[in-house]
Specification:
Layout: H1 2-11, E1 17-20, H2 26-39, E2 49-52
């Protein structure tokens, strides 16, 4: 997916992508998403991709 995302943002704008591991428990996924929401702004995520767990 990172390669495809890189191609996409060459011609488009993305609001950002978070990739959650399928092995992540629901509670850990929720905690990680809340952490991202609390410590960052939407503008910081434009054209960014991140995998969770970090």
């Amino acid at each position: 997916m990172p390669a495809e995302f890189g191609q996409f943002i060459m011609s488009q704008t993305s609001s950002g992508v978070l990739i959650l591991s399928k092995n992540l428990s629901i509670s850990d996924a929720i905690e990680a998403l809340i952490l991202v929401w609390e410590v960052s702004t939407a503008e910081e995520w434009v054209n960014q991709i991140m995998s969770i767990p970090f």
